[in-house]
Specification:
Blueprint lengths: L9 H14 L3 H31 L20
Amino acid sequence: MKTIQMTLDDDLVATVDQIVKKLKTTRSAFTRKALRNAIKQAHIEELERKHKKGYGKSPVDKMEFSVWETEQEWGDK
């Protein structure tokens, strides 16, 4: 593990301190979790951007999913 120095707004540190006290954790643990979540979210957003770009280049064909319509099960039978 590596120790780093960060500059944060006072109000942000105060809010984090309140939360970590309630969660009975540390600033470091809270920050690690927040950064991991932010990295996951950035990855999801990148995949969504690529997905949107792909469908922009090759839009869904009207018949693309029609073969699956007979396979649908709505659970109302």
